[in-house]
Structures are given as C-alpha cells and as structure tokens.
Amino acid sequence: MVLAERYCMQCGAACVSTEPVCGVCGASLKITLPLHAENENPFPQICLPEPLPADHLLANRYRIVRRVGGGGFGAVYKAQDTREGRRVAIKEISLSGLTPQQMIEATGSFNREVELLSSLHHRGIPCLYEHLTDSEHWYLVMEFIAGETLEEHLARTTDGRLPLEQALQIGTQVCDVLEYLHSRQPSIIFRDLKPANLMVLPDQRVSIIDFGVARRYAPGKPKDTTAFGSPGYAAPEQYGRAQTTSQTDIYSLGALLHQVLSGQDPSLNPFRFPPLRIYDRALSVELERLIAQMLETDMERRPASAAEVRRRMQAITASRIVTHRRKVTTTDAARRPQSPLASAAALARAFSTVGVTVYIYRGHDSAVHALAWAPDGHSIISSDDGRITSIWNPFHTSPPRILPTNGGHAFPVNDLAWAPNGHMLATASDDQTVRLWHLDTWPPRWQILVLLLGFRSSIYEGHLTAVNALSWAPNGTMLASAEERSAVHVWDASTRKRLLAYHGHSDVVEDVAWAPDGLRLASSSIDHTVRVWSAADGKGLWHWRTKGGAIVHTLVWSPDARYLACGVSNGQVHVCDVLQERQIFIYHGHKDAVSCVDWSPDGQRIASASFDGTVHLWHAPDGKEAFVYRSHQDSVLSVAWSPDGQHIASADREGVVHVWKTA
Which of 153, 353, 599, 651 is the 20 to 30 Å CA partner of 163? Predict the structure, then answer.
C-alpha cells in the first residue's frame, strides 16, 4: 500500500505529514510531493465494472478463460486466441465512471504501454500482439506468461527469502532485460521494478511485466513530469528530486535483491537497508557491497550500468560462494561400502575409462547453454550468456578462437548447430534472427575472419520474437527454428525463404528436432505437449501431453527415427515410440529438471544432463547400466555426443565445459 506520508525531496525518507522538517536529514518538508504507485493513483475512487465472464468472446476472436489479476483502472484476463490457437493475456482498462483527471491517468498508462511494448522484442518482456478499443474499454492483447509473480513466490516461502543461487539467477536475468531497455534510443526507464512486476516461469526464466509507468529518457530534462513508482523500491529521484535514469532501475533492483536475501519488505520502511550479512553471515562481502552500492541515495555513486551489475553478479556466482551447492567428490564414492560379490560386469566397469575427463575448457565466464561438435569431430563451438562464442579443439593445444560479439548477433545465442556437411554453422538468438555462416569456400586459417567480420554470412529474419532452438534437415538444405511466439518456421537455407510455419503449440516452443529420416519434426512447448508433425506440410501426426504440469525442455530423435527421448522439468526422461504412438519407458535417475538430452550415434545409449549437476549415461530404451558423471560443480545445461560416439561434451552454469570418455 502507498502510505499517506509526505516524502523528503532531499533524501527521500517517509515523514509524518504534520512535521515541518525531515526527521532523517533535517530538510524542509514544505515542498515535498506524494509518490503514486502505478496501481494506486491519487484518485482511488474508481467504480470498476463487472469482470468479463468465462467463455465471453472478445472482438469475435479472444475467448476469456478467467480473470487472473487486476488493479489500477481495470483487470487482466487469461484468454484463448481462437484464430492463432495460442494463449494470451488481455489487459482491460475501463473508462466508465472515470473523472477527467482519472481519464488522463488511464490514457497516459495505456498509451505508454502500447508505444513501448510495440517497439520491444526481448525474451524477458511479453510481446504485444494488438490493442483494441470500444466505447467504454481499452484492451492490450499480450503474450501470456505462464508462471507466478515473484511476490506470490515469496509469499509461499517460510521467511520471505530465496536461496542465494536463485536470487543471483533472477538478478542476472533482470539485468539482461534492463540492459536491453537502457540501450534503446532513447533509453527506456522501467521505474517500477518490484516483486509484483516480475514473473517467474516454470523453467526459472524471469519476465518483466506492466510497462504502465515506464518512460523514455529525455536528455536535459531536470525531472520527470509526474512522480511514479512504488515506495520502498522507488529511488529518491522518483519523488520529484531529479529525472529518472538507468541508475533509477538499478536502485530498484538493489531493493528487490535486498528483500529476497533478507526477507525484509522495503515498502514497510523505505530507504532503510541494513547490511545484508546481518541476516546471513554466509553471504559474501562482495555481494553485500554491490547491493549497498546499488542502493546509494546519490545516483552518481551507483553502478554505472546494468551490464556492470550483471558482470559483478556473475563474478560472485563464479567465486563459488553459493554455499548450498551440492558437491560430490571422488572421496564420497570411496567411502561407500563395496559388495564382495561384485559381478563380472561391475569389475569390467571398474577398469573402464567411461567418465574419464580428457579436457576442461574454462574460456567462458557465464552459463553455457549451447554447444555442438563439428561434424568432423575435431572442434567444439560453445556460446554463453555473456555473449561470448568460442571455437576450440579439445584434442589439440592450439588456443581457442573467441568471438566476443556472438558472430554478429545483438543478443546471446540460444542454440547453434553445424550443417550435416560441416560447410555452414547456424546460430539462433534472442535478437529474433538465425544467422548462417558459410565456411566451405575459405581455408581453415581464414574461417575465424569469416565468423568475426561477417564474410559469407546470411540472416533469416522471419521471426517476430526470440529464437529458442533450431535444427537442420538431414540433407542440409533446410532448417527449422522455434520462436517464443509459439511458432516453428521451416525455411530454405540457401534462399532464406520460409516454406511453412507450424502453429500447433499454444505457448512458447522450447525445442525442435528434425527426424533423421527427414520426413518429420518434433517440437516441445511450455504448453506441456510434444508434437510430431510433417516436414512437408506441417500436418500434425501425433502428440503427447505431460502430466502434473511438467514441461519438456529438450528432446532428441533416435538415429533410426523411431523413438523420441524427452527431458522433463520433473527430472524424468520419457522415451516414446513414435511409430506405435506410445510411451515405452521413463528414466527416473535425476533429482532435478532435465536440461538437455542427446542420443548416441550408434543408437544404444542416451546422455541426459540436469540441473542436479550430473550427466547420466544409460542404455536406451530401458535405462539399465547407468553411469553418472559427477565432475561438474553446478547445474549442467548442455550435452552433446561426439560424432564417433567416443566422447561427450557437457557444459554447466559456471561456464565450464568438460569433455569426457564414453567407453
């Protein structure tokens, strides 16, 4: 709730309205201004209409499912787009019963959100599909974000706190969104960063919602026209002291991080942030200093940018101060009692080289989500959250080739893949593009220049949102690429012309895989389905729905194109027989969500990576003779077999890539 107190323009402290001076800094209170949060304006007496009933068809297109939220001048509904077959969120602004001043407030909020969201394309920001009006309402039709607000998530905890690792993950993701907003021309200042405006998705990704009070930075302007924000999270300058800048959002992020690590709600005592280590002595001094600097009253003393905050948080994560991280050492295995009646197979495994690490690549400073072996098996390409892409040889001492700009992408690479013939490399990014690098006409010593300078590259720009995954057709002439807007595009690699768009999913598509026979594709989505469809015309052939709200993050075909292995958020791997259209086996070996799966080239084994920090190597399709690789010190995000099946490359959240033997 917004308090009725006046706020000091000098230090921003909340003060009793009857006092003539600020009790904190002694400044005069005669010229203070109230701060109004976006959902509690200075004219709160609004008579809202009855909510839209379930099954109501809005604009002859959007079928209302239910009301999911509200505030300000209207409500938010979950709805089904009957034309596109996708879930949407509809934000309703009611005009009935508003005073002239309330109409100004509602108009400003609506226009700001339409103007800003129409120009923004980032995986951490909901897409605006369209806006509608009638005589008494305005509507924003947006991407539906499946999940819960951080505020709701905190309410379910026992002490209002998050584990350190989760807090750092959220902070890093928010920094990525803020970097994007602040890099627009002119910069966009969000101005209302708080737990209620952060959505936490089932896969732990974060999305910022509600741009009703965001604004573009106006160079030379002394202060904002209207003071907006939420007490406790709003920086002092938001109370009318100065114009809000990118440092304003950094302050709000600092307040949010302080809350999730201390359990103290800043809205109850604005501008009072005791040292974090009072609440948890295990927290590092570096983290305490960073958040304290973010919360400086003087804007000039805060970190210079969200990029700086992100780098410092990644450095803190890399320093292994996450004390709850599960560490498994070889001494643990040595302490386990051994059976004196070991079988011959067990003795054979004891002398096996399975799991022997042959190379560790430490060229990344942040999480590696994508890696791939070159078809000749001589090199690996890997890309991280810090926008660094590396090409390196695990079997040769030559230095890695570092591409600091992700090979031309404006944002991090989400997926990458070599063409089957090795002559092209495809990279998919949050910048809504797929870039193709043509390597066939250049000698090996010049290929680094090809990637770095953009020679012989081409771009597919058919997507409207971030591209999450891609897959080559077995003959190397086409690609399938999946975007966050619930669509998969199939397009020609030489002409970059779209051949078909598959819209069978109703929500974000997580992964796509082309069957080795070239006839079918499989895709998974956070709509809890896996769908198999024709590569020729997009016709649906078979689908499978998970139970209990689980999501398939990753999938892979068997080399004979008969089976699918699907990695699920509940830690399971489901093996399905596509020809018989049934599930035949569930692997239960992991203790956390499965992030990546890959099938061995000979079709005999499956490698599954998990947030539990392990890679499991097991017999397909019955899960027997499982080997567990435990050498990673953090969540494993990507795994890939070498073309000859003799090695596996696996990458983790710390940015470390391990190459190890499979036989």
Answer: 651
